[in-house]
Amino acid sequence: MAQNIYDREDFFAGYSQLCRSVEGLDGAAEWPALRAMLPEVRGLRVADLGCGFGWFCRWAREHGATEVLGLDLSEKMLARARAAGLDAGITYAKADLDQLSLPQASFDLVYSSLALHYVEDVMRLFRTVHQALGSGGHFVFSTEHPIFMAPTNPGWVIDAEGRKTWPVDRYLVEGPRTTNWLAKGVVKYHRTIGTTLNALIRSGFTIGHVEEFRPTDAQIAARPELAEELERPMFLLVSVRR
Amino acid sequence: MAQNIYDREDFFAGYSQLCRSVEGLDGAAEWPALRAMLPEVRGLRVADLGCGFGWFCRWAREHGATEVLGLDLSEKMLARARAAGLDAGITYAKADLDQLSLPQASFDLVYSSLALHYVEDVMRLFRTVHQALGSGGHFVFSTEHPIFMAPTNPGWVIDAEGRKTWPVDRYLVEGPRTTNWLAKGVVKYHRTIGTTLNALIRSGFTIGHVEEFRPTDAQIAARPELAEELERPMFLLVSVRR
Asked: Around B208, how many Cα atoms within 13 Å sit in the side-chain half-sphere?
């Protein structure tokens, strides 16, 4: 059973103030890169694992998806998603990604943004997603990058020459990481890129594209604070096909 | 044109003393993991890109490969490989992996151990390997892990709590890295895992297995100094199929 951190008042209050919560998809620096990895969604049946406020569900419908299922563990997130407007083509439902079941061959695209690092057993989830997709179906997701998640102390260190460095340790020690992001005691699961990709391959997927997110020069020019993202990757973006 | 560092006296003298140079494949901690990713070599036509002293070429012949082509840029390495014994099934030849050409569909397995990080244009090399393999052919290689290669100062830093950390910076800034390993001014090319995998996919390969090398518990028990390898990965191992 995954930790339901998003329903904790302190976490939810902090999360609600993030750029990506206020502005939606365009408030997320990695969205253009992730969007470029999506198939044309027109006519597709879509599931969004960890849909949060429903930004992607609405985007998919606006771009012609026939039906969209938005799943999240957080009641608060789902309530906010539902409050954003009714759409007969979107269904929001509560689900724990560590215990998910989905009907067979019922989706053409499964999407997930920054939710898989809360999942302990990705092998189980990937198999569930695989059987839920029709032949040729797409699975596109972002997750925290293991370089970002591995360290005992995940924060910048200024070295003797004044350089910003990211103190990687325990990269090959997989398992839970407890951090204090927005609230104390947030539990995430660290996995290497290899482990994630091999679990996808063993689930029957073909790897299509793997991107360690790098802000574009234009993004850095517009938001100079993004320059530090060149030092270590924060997000891993993956697209695979059944 | 790749730098021919192995033919420099100081580098060659240092390299010749490494465990993997003296003991061969069994002196390389990652060999069992890489070997597990190989197909059965019996009956296969094999090419080894960056064959060094020829340890793998001889291993492949001992395990039934019908013909083996060992390629290296270093005359010193090739001379040592040839001196290790004549075998009508092994051909050693000089080649620069940045300018390599190989006959079409002429191999069943292309292997490369710790050579690709010296290659500037992997896209060109992957296309060359792809066309040189028959349908279903295997390409299995190890390369320095980008976490290992990225930093401006690639060395351990002891943090305030006495913890060993690896100071990652410039991970998303790809390109040459000059280090002083065994000799001054060794030039390697830093690429993210994503860049390597996407180049393979765009060359027509299907990703089969991706491993960020972790010494086994038994290896650490036998050689306790390997424990630090859990903090950050040194090697990336990949197998793909045409």
From this structure: 19
Closest listed residue to residue B56, CA positions, set B141, B129, B128: B141
Q: Tell me whether residues B232 and A151 touch, CB distance under 8 A.
A: no
Reduce the DSSP state of residue B241 to 3 states and report it. Answer: strand
Contacts of A151 in chain B (CB under 8 A): 165
Tell me the chain B residues in contact with residue A212 when contact means C-beta distances shorter than 8 Å. Answer: 171-172, 192-194
- B32 CB-near residues (< 8 Å, 6+ apart): B216
Distance of CA A172 to the CA centre of its chain: 22
* DSSP helix/strand/coil, B151: coil
- Find, among B74, B112, B80, the residue nearest to B95 by Cα: B74
B35-77 tens-digit pLDDT: 999 999 999 999 999 999 999 999 999 999 999 999 999 999 9
- CA A64 to chain CA centroid, Å, is 22
Chain A CB within 8 Å of residue B168 CB: yes
According to DSSP H, which parts of A65-192 are helical?
Answer: 75-83, 122-132, 146-149
Q: b/e per residue, B21-53, with b = 16+ CB within 10 A? A: beebbeebbbbebbeebbeebeebbbbbbbbbb
Predicted confidence (pLDDT) per residue in B66-103, tens digit: 999 999 999 999 999 999 988 999 999 999 999 999 99
Ramachandran class of A207: left when φ > 0, alpha when ψ lies in -120 to 50, beta otherwise: beta
Q: Is B230's Cβ below 8 Å from some Cβ in A? A: yes
Q: Which of B137, B47, B127, B154 is nearest to B92 (CA)?
A: B47
Question: CATH number of the domain at A5-202+216-241, please?
Answer: 3.40.50.150
Question: pLDDT tens-digit profile of A49-106?
Answer: 999 999 999 999 999 999 999 999 999 999 999 999 889 999 999 999 999 999 999 9
Strands A133-144 and A67-72: unpaired
* Cα–Cα distance for residue pair A105/A199, rounded to 1 Å: 20
Kind of pairing, strands A164-168 and A175-179? unpaired
CATH number assigned to the domain covering B5-147+192-241: 3.40.50.150
Quick one: pLDDT at residue B1? 67
The terminus-to-terminus CA distance of chain B in angstroms comes to 27
Contact by Cβ (8 Å): A116, A97: yes
Q: Could you give the CA distance from residue A42 to residue B19 in angstroms, rounded to a whole number?
A: 57
Contact between B201 and A193 using a beta-carbon 8 Å cutoff: no
Residues in chain A within 8 Å Cβ distance of B171: 147, 166, 212, 230-233
Q: Does the interface ipTM go beyond 0.85?
A: yes
